[in-house]
Specification:
Largest sheet: 3 strands, parallel
Oligomer: single chain
Strand content: 5-15%
Order of helices and strands: HEHEHEHH
């Protein structure tokens, strides 16, 4: 399996696609699926940063607005959320939604902090 080899080789970042893998989670694309992210982290032992593909992708039409998609992805265990529509408002919408979801308990603060630590560790390794 290529993921095992990549993880063993020290891969620091994995982008999950918006493909649906019915054998793992027939209801959600990989980057919105806690089951798929859990497989990567728990079964395969990946400790690095997870990143979504672009939130504006057509494959996510049925998953709400940028705000809703950002919260779903973060709740699934994604560390970095890719807003690439070349519109600063898209990123602002995601940030506001994540802040609100943390404040109201929709997102788990400890999990969010763990993701931030992984991102900061990656940033530190690049300098």
């Amino acid at each position: 399996m290529p993921y095992r080899a990549a993880i063993s080789a020290g891969t620091k970042l994995v982008m999950l696609s918006w493909a649906v893998y019915p054998a793992l989670d027939a209801d959600r694309p990989a980057g919105l699926s806690p089951i798929v992210v859990g497989e990567l982290r728990n079964r395969l032992g990946f400790q690095g940063v997870t990143v979504t593909d672009a939130l504006e992708a057509g494959a996510l039409r049925d998953y709400g607005s940028t705000a809703e998609r950002a919260v779903l992805a973060t709740g699934a265990g994604m560390d970095l959320i890719l807003c690439s529509a070349r519109d600063a408002d898209q990123g602002d919408e995601a940030v506001v939604a994540l802040s609100e979801a943390l404040a109201d308990g929709t997102l788990d603060g400890a999990s969010f902090d763990a993701g931030a630590r992984r991102v900061n560790a990656l940033r530190g390794s690049l300098s």
